[in-house]
């Protein structure tokens, strides 16, 4: 009678083969949706899988990775906003596609694409506008979006910037931006 075949849902071997190939799934689709070449996508995928073997990055891991670039300050608040901008589907984890699509816009997007991406980063509550400060009847969190992001950038850069920024610097920066 012989040995029965493995169950249909057993795909461990396929997963190992996929990881060994260093090639993302849907490579042609990713090429169509980004401005990277096939070789660039394969190279980015190798780096991504090396840092994130599971194929997904949660916000905590993203924040830890990002903190390595800004050891002189506290980048956690800015990393939170950045993570949400990359996490286009709001799943709470970045897959390779989320990462590479965002990176493509930031590195090779048109001016309009970059502006749209930046707007999405600043529009914390996703209501289609960026607010400057607390508004009467505001509903918490997202009603002072520009100031929250600007504070997070100053925190990330740390106190070692010269000259040292005044405590009022983020608010002044926001005021100038809106003018």
UniProtKB/TrEMBL annotation:
Pfam families: EF-hand_8. InterPro entries: EF-hand-dom_pair, EF_Hand_1_Ca_BS, EF_hand_dom, Recoverin. Residues 74-109, 110-145 form the EF-hand domain. SUPFAM superfamilies: EF-hand. GO terms for molecular function: calcium ion binding; DNA-binding transcription repressor activity, RNA polymerase II-specific; potassium channel regulator activity; RNA polymerase II cis-regulatory region sequence-specific DNA binding. This is EF-hand domain-containing protein. The keyword Metal-binding applies. Coiled coil: none annotated. Keywords: Calcium, Metal-binding, Repeat. The keyword Calcium applies. One of its GO terms (cellular component) is voltage-gated potassium channel complex. It comes from the Eukaryota. One of its GO terms (biological process) is regulation of potassium ion transmembrane transport. Signal peptide: none annotated.
């Amino acid at each position: 009678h012989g040995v029965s075949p493995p169950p249909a849902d057993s795909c461990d071997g396929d997963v190992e083969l996929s990881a060994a190939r260093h090639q993302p799934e849907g490579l042609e689709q990713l090429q169509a949706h980004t401005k990277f070449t096939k070789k660039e996508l394969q190279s980015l995928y190798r780096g991504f899988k090396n840092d994130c073997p599971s194929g997904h990055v949660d916000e905590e891991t993203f924040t830890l990775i990002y903190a390595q670039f800004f050891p002189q300050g506290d980048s956690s608040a800015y990393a939170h906003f950045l993570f949400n901008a990359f996490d286009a589907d709001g799943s709470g984890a970045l897959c390779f596609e989320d990462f590479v699509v965002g990176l493509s816009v930031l590195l090779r997007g048109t001016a309009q694409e970059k502006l749209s991406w930046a707007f999405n980063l600043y529009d914390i509550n996703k209501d289609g506008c960026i607010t400057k400060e607390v508004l009467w009847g505001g509903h918490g969190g997202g009603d002072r979006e520009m100031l929250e992001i600007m504070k997070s950038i100053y925190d990330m850069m740390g106190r070692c910037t010269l000259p040292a920024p005044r405590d009022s610097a983020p608010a002044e920066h926001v005021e100038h931006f809106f003018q």
